[in-house]
Amino acid sequence: GQQVQQSPASLVLQEGENAELQCNFSSTATQLQWFYQSPGGSLVSLLSNPSGTKHTGRLTSTTVTKERRSSLHISSSQTTDSGTYLCAIDITGNTGKLIFGLGTTLQVQP
Amino acid sequence: GGIITQTPKFLIGQEGQKLTLKCQQNFNHDTMYWYRQDSGKGLRLIYYSITENDLQKGDLSEGYDASREKKSSFSLTVTSAQKNEMAVFLCASSRGNTLYFGAGTRLSVL
Question: DSSP E strands: which ranges in chain A?
């Protein structure tokens, strides 16, 4: 089965609404990263957050390591936030060998 | 800042053909990776390299060869393209915990 499960699979919001994306994983993770992939574009690392809460701009990630889950909160969504958000974990000790989820596709409508 | 350049952007091959994808990075990162992205399956690691001339197999290495002759470049060869195969191949590099990805090579096999 999938080691990294993301929900929801897709999400449609109106501009200005907040988004909450979830990531659950089945193995102990030494590293957890959230990535953004624009339609047809490359992946960009948003946050590296193996535990606790981290903020950057309108993004907040909270990872509860013991419960093997992480969330990504996007506040005041904008149309330019549309794309796919991927959660990835490293279970081999910070080697960079990441296991990816299938992603949440976000569409923000004007 | 640095950049990861993947060539070609699009690759159309014939069944059974050997195809080579190239990746260059100017971050001066030690570790480089090749991931494959298929619709509905997420990203999967094919090969990675922790230094020049080093090669490590990922979960999807069968059917591929890789080469890291210089620190800045990492190439991937599809040894025998499969009919109707369609995927995006993503190259990445890292120092520490953060991965930086290229824009990808989109492969179609006729």
Answer: 4-7, 10-14, 19-25, 31-37, 43-48, 52-56, 59-64, 69-74, 83-90, 98-100, 104-109
**Which residues on chain A are in Cβ contact (under 8 Å) with B101?**
35, 42-44
Rounded alpha-carbon distances, angstroms, from residue A78 to A33, A54, A66, B48, B70: 22, 20, 33, 36, 41
pLDDT tens, B26-73? Answer: 999 999 999 999 987 889 999 999 999 999 999 899 999 999 999 999
Query: How many Cβ atoms from other residues are within 10 Å of residue B91's Cβ?
Result: 28
Q: Is A67 helix (H, G, I), strand (E, B) or coil?
A: helix
Tell me how far apart the alpha carbons of residues B27 and B102 are, in angstroms, rounded to a whole number.
12
Which has the closest alpha carbon to A58: A43, A72, A70?
A: A72
Q: Which fold has domain B4-109?
A: Immunoglobulin-like (2.60.40)
Q: Enter the tokens of residue A100.
A: 């990816």
Cβ-nearest to A42 among B33, B58, B103: B103
- Structural domains for chain A: 4-105 (2.60.40.10)
Note whether B97 contacts A31, CB cutoff 8 Å.
yes
CA distance A58 to chain B (A): 20
* Cβ contacts of A31 on chain B, cutoff 8 Å: 97
Residues of chain A short of pLDDT 50, as ranges, are: none
B47 and chain A in contact, CB less than 8 A: no
**Tokens found for residue A33:** 């990263």
